[in-house]
C-alpha cells in the first residue's frame, strides 16, 4: 500500500478499498488447500519441511513442502495467482495489471523449475483445486522413487 500525499489517501493497484482489503488478507502460507495437502502427505507417513527455499541462492522462491535429502520440492499453486488452465479467469477490473502479474508469476514458476532441475531437484506442482489425497499419493510415489535412487554414501 502506498500512502500518497498528506491527506492519507491511498495509491494502490486495487480497483477499490474493498478489493485491496480482500487481497491483503490473502495468506502467503498455511492456506486451506496447503493445510489439506500437508495433512494428507503426513497421513501417508512422509515427513517434510514447510515453506523453505530448496536452494540457498533462491531464498525468495520458497517451496510449500521440501524433502531436502531427496531433493524433492512441492509447490501448491493457486488457480488465480498462477493462471490455472482450467480455472483461471482474467479479472474484469485492472485486467492488464492482473494479466501481467499472472504472466510474471508463471514465468517465475518456469524459471524456478528450470533452476531446481538443473541443480538435480525434482519439482512437483499441484494446483489448489486438485484432490489433496490424490496429490499426496503422487507426491509419495515421487518421494519413494527418490529414496530408491538416492546414493547410499550421503
Automatic annotation (TrEMBL):
Keyword DNA damage applies: yes
GO biological process: mismatch repair
Record keywords: DNA damage, DNA repair, Endonuclease, Hydrolase, Nuclease
Molecular function terms from GO: endonuclease activity; hydrolase activity
Pfam families reported for this sequence: Vsr
Cited InterPro entries: DNA_mismatch_endonuc_vsr, Restrct_endonuc-II-like
Keyword DNA repair attributed: yes
Family according to the record: Belongs to the Vsr family.
Name by which UniProt lists this protein: T/G mismatch-specific endonuclease
Amino acid at each position: 500500500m502506498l500512502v500518497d500525499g498528506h491527506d492519507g489517501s491511498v495509491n494502490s493497484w486495487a480497483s477499490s478499498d474493498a478489493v485491496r482489503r480482500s487481497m491483503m488478507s490473502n495468506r502467503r502460507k498455511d492456506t486451506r488447500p496447503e493445510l489439506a495437502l500437508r495433512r494428507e502427505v503426513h497421513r501417508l507417513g512422509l515427513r517434510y519441511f514447510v515453506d523453505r527455499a530448496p536452494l540457498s541462492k533462491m531464498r525468495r522462491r520458497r517451496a510449500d513442502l521440501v524433502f531436502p535429502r531427496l531433493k524433492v520440492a512441492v509447490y501448491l499453486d493457486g488457480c488465480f495467482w498462477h493462471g490455472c488452465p482450467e480455472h483461471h479467469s482474467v479479472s474484469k477490473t485492472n485486467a492488464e495489471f492482473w494479466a501481467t502479474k499472472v504472466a510474471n508469476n508463471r514465468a517465475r514458476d518456469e524459471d524456478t523449475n528450470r533452476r531446481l532441475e538443473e541443480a538435480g531437484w525434482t519439482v512437483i506442482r499441484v494446483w489448489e483445486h486438485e484432490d489433496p489425497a490424490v496429490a499426496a499419493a503422487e507426491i509419495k510415489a515421487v518421494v519413494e522413487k527418490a529414496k530408491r535412487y538416492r546414493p547410499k554414501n550421503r
